[in-house]
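Human: Not sure, check this?
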Amino acid sequence: MTLVSSKLTEEHVFTSGIEGPACDRDGNLYAVNYAKQGTIGKITPDGSGELWLELPEGSIGNGIRFNREGDMFIADYTGHNILRVHMESKAVSVFAHEPRMNQPNDICIHGDGTIFASDPNWGNGTGNLWRIDPSGEVTLMEQDMGTTNGVEIGPQEDVLYVNESAQRRIWVYDLSENKEISNKRLLIAFDDYSLDGMRCDMDGNLYVTRHGKGVVAKLSPQGELLQEIRLEGTDCTNLCFGGPDGKQCYVTVADRGGVQTFAIDRPGRCWGMWNE
């Protein structure tokens, strides 16, 4: 099956800092930096958008995830925070603050609310991996990796994936019930371009944005490249799954300042968390 992307939004309704993205239970899509930096945009399933939230002064978002209760969590890379947003009141609070972070970049979330955050140092070509417990306690899991970026948990919540953008590698760890990582191994290494956000479907296939190449790579749980989905534009930054059956993929594309979409054959893990 050849997958083809189409535009969900018009181009340049977001800044070149467009990232996120994440869907709520109703299928609305949220992404950062709508119209200007430091905002959250809301896109309805028909593609219409609005400036939904302005973050506190000095905060700029990157990755977004929802927990099972429906709260939004945002990696605030300028404030060294993980922010929590109450969806009804739009009240923003600091869920976790860690000044030792270079920046929280992308995040993923376990079913029990535990968050893992990537933490790149772009200038040095290094990065860290952090865990944020449901209490907000922050723990350094690994340091002095490559430029950590995309991070995701497998659908059985027994593995954790972390990629390194500049080094073009994806690592996989065993993830224990108490959220410890072990048995680090290389899933795949690419020869060109770079890596950004990634998400799993319910079968454990990993969809990875190939920043600079303008494709989403679909990988098997064993690291086999199954296919590439071509996008309009080159600088795809992240993706998520939604739609009525969880089989719609939404991709943020920075050089086009908008969201593109394509259909897949299995629901995404993030959609599955809403419906288990």
